[in-house]
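Task: sequence design from structure.
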């Protein structure tokens, strides 16, 4: 089995009988309305992938893990002339992917549930799904020619890895995301010191998750992948050069793993688009001529320079936007529709303000308990959530050019919250579509209703608590205790204070911990 890194989360897995392409993001205009771009450039590999998919001597498959546009590159897939291949996609509750490929002309489209297996020449493809409404993602296990490759992509199923290892054995090659990808704290108005403190914590949690996965799976090779992107829009380019943020480079992870797992037999090389790995031996062939070494800043500035005219033309295109008042009226209607389906609206006591950059003194105030949205002239609450975004980008959402989740990943908005406490219901309200609200709430209520309890020990003291994380259902029996009191969820590293009834730190939620050893 030979594995070629295609950049970001993309791989080409091939044997003498079969080719499996995973998440090929190769279009030159980036993702999320050109907020994200591949780092380093991999656009030249589009021709290589097209050639592979035209190889009639072998069976060919294209796997798409989820709907995020740095994984689902429809522009590239639509550009392929020869389509004698099978598309493999996960069967999520929301059928975005199924709809995206409903009219796609190819050999076949196979839709897989969690744990479903697809036979391929000399082996199998198996998918693992995380379908928790806020997150829809999947992982793939390719077994062929006696070798195996497990790629988690962005899928945070760390709690499921022990079971996968028991059932399938240790993979020869393992890949997963190591970099951040969310709007917190990237788009929040924090003082620099607080911003960096939050970013460092998130990076440590992400790196720790990778280390835990390597310890569990014990692969021959781990390939850092699925990030970070780079940002070429003049409005975002500064993110590339922040001294501390949630977008660490692979070399930082490698340094961490060298220190964290000094006795490990796993290799963790830094790979570039075009590099190949022999799954049988773990040998890496450095095929890529363009490598990121000490020229990081110069490379990105040159990369951004190539897109100056692109972004200038787009700025001219969107300079004349709809009247702000009319656009706010359209946003109001959408927010009201979302509120109608938000059955957990009464859980949110803090109002949300939504405003446009070019209409700063007029905003929408969402009052969750009575399900009302009103147009106001300014902030009138001490405690609040707020979103401020460009009119043109908001119009793109309302015109169904991008989804609300895509919008959150453009990073072109600014957010505030007072107090600085994460609320899952508010996140779902902002990032999901109106038709998702009811099912999102049903999912959270189902987690709450699950009364299964477990016992964990921290510094010699036993605690009984809910097994599943109230955030998105992570299995806390696979978690770990930090600082002698904070139980950490393996999926998103939420922490719960065992000495404070299991209340979440900096988030709304509880695992209802009860000390079993009190006098």
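Answer:
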């Amino acid at each position: 089995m030979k594995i070629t890194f295609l950049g970001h989360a993309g791989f080409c897995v091939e044997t003498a009988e079969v080719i499996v392409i995973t998440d090929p993001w190769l279009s030159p205009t980036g993702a999320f309305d050109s907020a994200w771009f591949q780092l380093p450039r991999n656009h030249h590999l589009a021709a290589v992938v097209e050639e592979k998919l035209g190889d009639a001597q072998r069976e060919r498959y294209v796997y798409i893990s989820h709907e995020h546009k740095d994984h689902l590159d429809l522009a590239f897939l639509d550009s392929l002339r020869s389509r004698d291949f099978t598309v493999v996609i996960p069967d999520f509750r929301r059928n975005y992917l199924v709809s995206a490929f409903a009219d796609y002309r190819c050999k076949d489209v196979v839709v897989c549930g969690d744990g479903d297996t697809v036979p391929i020449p000399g082996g199998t493809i198996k998918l693992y799904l995380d379908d928790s409404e806020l997150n829809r993602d999947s992982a793939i296990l390719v077994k062929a020619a006696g070798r195996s490759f497990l790629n988690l992509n962005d899928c945070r199923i760390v709690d499921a890895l022990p079971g996968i290892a028991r059932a399938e054995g240790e993979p020869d090659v393992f890949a997963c995301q190591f970099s951040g990808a969310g709007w917190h704290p990237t788009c929040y108005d924090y003082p620099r010191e607080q911003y960096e403190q939050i970013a460092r914590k998130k990076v440590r949690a992400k790196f720790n998750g990778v280390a835990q996965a390597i310890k569990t799976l014990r692969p021959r090779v781990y390939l850092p992948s699925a990030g970070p992107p780079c940002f070429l829009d003049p409005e975002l380019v500064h993110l590339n050069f922040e001294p501390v943020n949630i977008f660490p480079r692979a070399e930082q992870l490698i340094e961490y793993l060298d220190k964290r797992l000094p006795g490990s037999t796993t290799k963790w090389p830094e790979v570039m688009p075009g590099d190949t790995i022999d799954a049988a031996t773990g040998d890496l062939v450095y095929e890529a001529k363009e490598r990121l070494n000490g020229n990081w800043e110069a490379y990105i500035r040159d990369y951004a320079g190539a897109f100056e005219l692109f972004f200038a033309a787009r700025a001219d295109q969107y300079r004349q936007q709809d009247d702000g008042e009319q656009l706010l009226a359209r946003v109001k209607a959408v927010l009201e529709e979302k509120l109608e389906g938000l059955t957990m609206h009464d859980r949110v006591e803090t109002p949300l303000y939504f405003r446009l950059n070019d209409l700063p003194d007029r905003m929408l105030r969402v009052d969750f308990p009575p399900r009302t949205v009103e147009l106001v002239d300014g902030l009138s609450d001490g405690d609040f959530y707020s979103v401020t975004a460009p009119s043109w980008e908001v119009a793109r959402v309302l015109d169904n050019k991008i989804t609300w989740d895509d919008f959150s990943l453009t990073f072109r908005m600014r957010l505030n919250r007072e107090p600085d406490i994460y609320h899952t219901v508010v996140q779902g309200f902002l990032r999901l579509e109106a038709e998702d609200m009811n099912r999102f709430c049903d999912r959270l209520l189902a987690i709450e209703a699950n009364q299964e309890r477990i016992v964990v020990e921290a510094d010699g003291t036993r605690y009984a608590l809910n097994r599943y994380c109230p955030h998105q259902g992570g299995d806390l029996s696979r978690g770990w205790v930090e600082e002698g009191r904070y139980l950490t969820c393996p999926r998103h590293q939420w922490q719960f204070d065992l000495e404070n009834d299991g209340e979440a730190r900096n988030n709304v939620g509880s695992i209802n911990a009860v000390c079993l050893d009190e006098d």
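The CA atoms of residues 292 and 299 lie 8 Å apart.
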